[in-house]
Amino acid sequence: MKRLRLVIALALGAVALSSCTLVPTAKHPADISPTHVPFGLLGKTIPGTNNGHVRFKTQPVYIVDVTGHLSPSSRIVPSPPVLASVLRQLVLGPTKFESQAGYTSALPRSLVILSASIKDGIGYIDLASSLSRLSRSEEVLAVGQLVLTAHNVGASRGIEITIGGTAVLAPLPDGHQRRLVTPADVQSLLNS
Fold first, then answer.
1. Cβ neighbours of residue 121 under 8 Å, at least 6 residues apart?
2. Which helix (H) or strand (E) holds 130?
């Protein structure tokens, strides 16, 4: 019986203490003096670097709209944008707000981009796994998302997709397959 009383007393004490806080609360946000912000966090450069700066740029990525076509959507990436960082934003899919509006992505969220670079106007995208596990229409949309997004980063001549370093044929909206997919090949996927 004494143990039960002790357990109940400890439980009541824990509940009482859990409603307390050591940090006083305020009804309104309080201004903090710049002299009280440590580690140079308010400086114009990155703390701990020799005048290091990071600039950001808005970059379009293509997602699937409610009509099943591709539409551009803005993402913020470090400037100058490189293909790998922009594609990482694309793989994250639509934002919560875009999802609520009915936008989706044909690219699986589990997609791993091993490398992505541009050489002579061609984007080379190396994926860890194939897109062929998607339905044919989703695979075509996914390829379109990659092509159009890469085009805005500088892959003006198109993209080549590789799986673990091996080039693969990508499906086109017209039913054909091609190794080098150009923006012209996927124009029919755009919402016009």
1. 154, 155, 156, 157
2. none
Are 80 and 152 within 8 A, CB to CB? no
Question: Torsions phi, psi of 136, nearest 5?
Answer: -55, -45
pTM for this predicted structure: 0.74
Contact 120, 155 (CB under 8 A): no
Query: Residue 180 to residues 78, 123, 138, 168: CA-CA distances in angstroms?
Result: 27, 9, 19, 9
For residue 19, the 8-state DSSP code is: T
Q: What are phi and psi of 149, to 5 degrees?
A: -65, -45
Q: What is the pLDDT of residue 23?
A: 66
The number of beta carbons lying within 10 Å of the beta carbon of residue 160 is 18
